[in-house]
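Why should sequence recovery work at all? Because a backbone constrains its sequence more than one might expect. Tight turns favour small or flexible residues, buried strands favour hydrophobic ones, and helices have their own preferences. The token representation captures these environments compactly. In the example below, the structure is given first.
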């Protein structure tokens, strides 16, 4: 086993988790603080502009685009969490909602396109000060309007092979009050587009830059009163609610999940109809250490049909099925946000796997359908941060003797 890589992975996950703390299913999912819907909702609209540059893909045909700047516009509608639910206090009273994104790549007549996206976002503070706050902002969604690679129609664009791709953006920004209704934001951003190797090629498109924004805070409204707004002369920023939370009691959790998907050839970009089936079985044990997260250790079993291309030179008469299977061990951290879980895992295979490097990572999300059943969607990457395949699955969990409400 690659002990050095695993040790570095453990250090990475420990450092990542130092900024957060965790939460149980019962605390988050069964929160009935506003079950009667008598507390106001605080809604806002926001506009952001982006300006920046491209990280190089190494594709000769994109040099003109990558040597130019890009610009983008975001339109958002969101809700401010002020403590209407208890989990909002744990994250420093975050904002969340939906947005539209439109980028322009220059020159506008180019072989890559100018992508648009629809997405969801989550914004929360690292630190609040008297007159401003330092926040992190995450957005994930579906991007479109790319000119994907085509061997006949668009042969020089070998960076990304699909018209539809995943949109991911992260930024660190300051937020400050401008007036009674307006807030301003300014920060640094990174944006990534890729398709998880569901379509080859998939080198991805990566952007960096600055963002500036203006947020307009609408009057809060109360659903129980027919959507009636609060008084116009009332400050639209609802005061935060603080709770006397019970002391957290750590407990163990055990879960298993199964996932499937598909991938394309990591090498052949000419055959647009070549797909391989992939599958994963994962088994984990995790320790909830606070209301917001848990550490874990687990075993993965993978079947990757595209490994045929790695071994076909060694087995000219046919690659044995056993070469398509491999297993590994991983360490993990999971961040709990209401019914959602953000999963970050790093692992090493038990044996050498051709073309997959000495380690792998998994980044993704889970959604709790019930107390014990969850949906799983994650990206698995081999020996780096180039996509291997996307996992679509479902899982089942059990709790230790001192689990929630047990």
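From this structural description, the recovered sequence reads:
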């Amino acid at each position: 086993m690659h002990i050095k890589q695993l040790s570095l992975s453990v250090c990475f996950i420990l450092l990542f988790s130092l900024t957060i703390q965790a939460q149980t299913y019962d605390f988050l999912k069964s929160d009935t603080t506003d079950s009667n819907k008598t507390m106001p909702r605080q809604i806002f609209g926001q506009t952001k502009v982006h300006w920046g540059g491209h990280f190089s893909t190494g594709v000769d045909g994109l040099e003109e685009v990558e040597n130019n700047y890009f610009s983008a516009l975001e339109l958002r509608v969101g809700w401010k969490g002020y403590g209407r639910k208890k989990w909002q206090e744990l994250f420093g009273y975050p904002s969340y909602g939906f947005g539209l994104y439109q980028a322009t790549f220059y020159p506008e007549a180019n072989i890559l396109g100018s992508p648009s996206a629809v997405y969801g976002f989550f914004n929360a503070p690292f630190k609040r000060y008297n007159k401003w706050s330092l926040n992190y902002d995450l957005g994930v969604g579906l991007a479109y309007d790319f000119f994907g690679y085509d061997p006949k129609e668009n042969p020089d664009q070998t960076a990304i092979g699909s018209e539809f791709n995943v949109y991911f953006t992260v930024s660190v920004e300051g937020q400050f009050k401008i007036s009674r209704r307006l807030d301003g934001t300014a920060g640094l951003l990174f944006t990534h587009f890729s398709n998880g190797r569901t379509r080859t090629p998939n080198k991805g498109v990566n952007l960096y830059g600055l963002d500036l924004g203006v947020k307009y805070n609408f009057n809060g409204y109360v659903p129980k009163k027919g959507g009636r707004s609060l008084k116009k002369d009332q400050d639209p920023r609802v005061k935060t609610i603080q709770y006397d939370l019970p002391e957290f009691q750590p407990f163990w959790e055990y879960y298993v999940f199964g996932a499937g998907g598909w991938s394309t050839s990591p090498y052949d970009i000419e055959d647009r109809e070549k797909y391989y089936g992939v599958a994963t079985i994962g088994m984990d044990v995790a320790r909830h250490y606070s209301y917001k997260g848990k550490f874990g250790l687990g075993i993965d079993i993978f079947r990757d049909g595209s490994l045929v291309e790695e071994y076909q030179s060694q087995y000219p008469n046919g690659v044995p099925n056993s070469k398509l299977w491999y297993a590994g061990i991983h360490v993990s951290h999971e961040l709990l946000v209401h019914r959602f879980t953000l999963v970050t895992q790093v692992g090493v295979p038990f044996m050498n796997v051709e073309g997959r490097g000495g380690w792998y990572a998994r980044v993704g999300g889970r959604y709790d359908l019930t107390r014990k059943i969850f949906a799983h969607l994650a990206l698995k990457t081999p020996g780096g941060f180039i996509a291997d395949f996307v996992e679509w699955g479902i899982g089942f969990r059990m709790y230790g003797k001192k689990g929630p409400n047990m």
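A few observations help interpret the result. Residues 3-22+248-399 form a domain with the Lipocalin fold (CATH 2.40.128.30).
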